[in-house]
Please model this.
Amino acid sequence: MSIPRVFIIRHGETEWSLNGRHTGTSELPLTANGEKRIRATGKALVGDDRLIVPSKIAHIYVSPRRRAQRTLELLDLGCHERLGESDGNVEHGEGDLIAKVKVQITEDIREWDYGDYEGKTSPQIREERKAKGLREDWDIWRDGCPGGEWVAPRSPTDVSERLDRLIADIRTRYHEKVMSKKSDDETMKGDVLVVAHGHILRAFAMRWIGRALTEGVSLLLEAGGVGTLSYEHHRIKEPAILLGGAFVVDLVDNIEKS
Model:
């Protein structure tokens, strides 16, 4: 039985991610170094004998923000066409390498809406809150963002709602049918890619395992970083964060022969 995975991929470095400014709705390009690092990530992790096997990808979800879409293009998964902006969910058929897998631009995985804190660093936010008589130890998971998104019960438009909707879509459309097959066919497609942003992907990982965001999210995902989510004991009711995996045997054999 194949155990499907979700690869969460944060977009490459931008000027604002480099200096710690919160970037939600703003459109910023990747830096030259950011593009180079994403290309290197693609070469290291994508391939038939690598962590991300293109032929096993069932679907790709990507944020509407251009920096996330550019990151997807640079991973060299066969997505050579430029993806346009979208106000909703749009699917694109892509290249031969991933055998016409759909790339879906979705608002459900857009970055956190920072509202009044857009473009500001955490120290600037703390100083601003101090001047207003608010708690200085600002925690986005507890305090949210005025003018932007909050976490329940502070807001009816809880960030968790859109993440839970996306997770349910992944499990219903792609993972349940793969895990229900009593087969050792390793060619079955079940892996999913989610290409997005720092805060929202960390929140996604927490919701994947059913944790409330108000508990605090002690997870890190660097610009251009890749994380893996899956399941324990071959059970879809036991979602888990995969901390690390073993190297593929074929990769080691190829290195030894070269």
